[in-house]
């Protein structure tokens, strides 16, 4: 890995800059007492960028979808923005809806929903509600660093235990083991599973791609802890970046199996909207020797474009390069016994909650 311009990197952050969204005719904001105002006066790199958290009290928390590409129809997101700072995060453009940058704003100007579990309780208590697996962590990570303070994810899991409602968790944080007690209770009734994303086993590369996420080995240690506790664990190699991380497929599969994972999957890198220019800038800073090659390979997998938003292909990729990765994954799954089909959770045990937080005795 090369870094030809370290002065263009904010220490501890993933995005090289604070790209201005243009899809909503937003005016470029004038920076106010941030690194841009004093950059010319600095003798060195950018100063540390502080994280701010705004509490917002949502009126609804359960989001529904009809996508054929994902195995669930509802999800909960306890936070907006994500401090992990993964440069490739497909959720970055959501910050543009709020006149914030999908770049550094996304990973430093966060929003927390402290009343998420209370609103979800009201939703589950409605007479017409029909239970099905809730996914958490599909947009921003439910175990990003601020979860240690807010414990919103834990409150949601506690509600799932109370109501015997199925939930699956996706994260790239070892902080998930903080809730191993609740996850174990759910797993004992086949009501949950945990997917842990592992993008690379290279700690240095991971710090660049995902600067504030858990290190690869710490994530794998969490896989082992969860598996030993009887919790179904899936490892997701997501995203796979051609000519940057694709050479690690077999090694990650082997490590996942060694640490107790039951299954594995992959997703090729997705670059919707403002993520594409952010990622190109990141490549120019960290991989100038192959930036053009990487983007050409991505376009090859995406029908000649930076991104493919079409159902059925957006999560799989297309073309020879994607076919090769599929073949390698198929072999790796078979070799390491990672093709388990026990991921499904049950939804027939659900007990609606009372709005006062107490279950009925009858």
Gist of the model:
By secondary structure, this protein is an alpha/beta fold. 31% of the residues lie in helices and 12% in strands.
SSE order: HEEEEHEHEHHEHEHHEHEHHH
Number of strands: 10
Query: Structural class, from secondary structure content?
Result: alpha/beta
Based on the coordinates given, report the CATH architecture of the domain at 58-74 and 113-336: Alpha-Beta Horseshoe
Query: What is the percent of helical residues?
Result: 25-40%
CATH class bucket of the domain at 58-74 and 113-336: Alpha Beta
- What general outline do the C-alpha atoms trace? globular
Compute the separation of the termini in Å. 63 Å
Mean pLDDT score, rounded? Answer: 88
Helix count equals: 12
Q: For the largest sheet, list the strands in their spatial order.
A: 2-3-6-7-8-9-10
The description of the largest β-sheet is: 7 strands, mixed
| CATH-defined superfamily of the domain at 58-74 and 113-336 | pyruvate-formate lyase- activating enzyme
Low-pLDDT stretches = 2-7, 26-43
Determine the strand fraction and express it as a percent band.
5-15%
Would you tell me which CATH topology of the domain at 58-74 and 113-336 applies? pyruvate-formate lyase- activating enzyme
Assembly type of the shown chains?
single chain
Rg over CA atoms: 21 Å
Keywords:
single chain, 362 residues, alpha/beta, pyruvate-formate lyase- activating enzyme, seven-stranded mixed sheet, three-stranded mixed sheet, 12 helices
